[in-house]
Write a structure and sequence with these properties.
The protein is α+β, with helices and mostly antiparallel strands. It has two domains: 1-45; 47-170, no CATH class. Helices cover 35% and strands 27% of the residues. The chain is built from two helices and seven strands; from the N terminus they run αβββββββα. A five-stranded mixed barrel has the order 1-2-5-7-6. The longest helix has 44 residues, at 2-45. Residues 3-26 have low confidence and may be disordered.
């Protein structure tokens, strides 16, 4: 009788463990989806209007001196690229911590539209989403970390997820 009770206890304990494992496996994708949705929400809440002068063009994107809010006038807003011949100034301003407000300062813009082509010192006006940081080298041997923005929400989410994964691998004690 005692052996039967022990056997049942072991079998039931094994069933409970397998059941818990199944629930854990189902919870992981839900957790990842929730995390991805949180990053999406953060990107939407952190979106900024990049309106500024293109200082450097690299294969990954553009270094932009943003804050030229006087570009936000008709007919300049018809395209995301404004020719460098337009008269624009960069007034002293503060960046508000609200979605969609103009971004102030030096930023890196990636995932830009293919058309029209951008040239150095042209102006850009485009809504963008935070996508981490970028190491900018304005001149040789000088590096500066600046904010990185993506013109695509989907790309911004992917960049943020990749940066988190890369950061967690770098900080993993097993890797060191």
């Amino acid at each position: 009788m005692i052996l039967l009770q022990l056997f049942l206890l072991v079998v039931l304990n094994g069933c409970a463990t397998k059941s818990a494992a199944v629930h854990t496996e189902k919870a992981a994708p839900a957790s990842a989806a929730t995390h991805s949705e949180q990053i999406r929400t953060d990107c939407i809440n952190g979106r900024r209007l990049i309106c500024g002068k293109v200082l450097k063009i690299v294969p990954d994107g553009l270094a932009v001196d943003s804050g030229y809010t006087d570009l936000l006038r008709q007919p300049l807003t018809r395209s995301w690229v404004v020719p460098r011949s337009v008269s624009a100034s960069n007034p002293v301003a503060l960046e508000l911590n609200e979605p969609g407000t103009p971004c102030i300062g030096l930023v890196f813009l990636t995932n830009i539209p293919q058309r029209p082509k951008v040239k150095i010192f042209d102006y850009v006006i485009i809504m963008s989403y935070p996508a981490g940081q970028y190491v900018y080298a304005p001149v040789p041997n000088v590096e500066k970390t600046i904010r990185k923005f993506s013109a695509s929400l989907d790309a911004a989410i992917k960049l943020n997820l990749a940066a988190e994964a890369n950061n967690s691998q770098t900080n993993d004690p097993a890797v060191k």
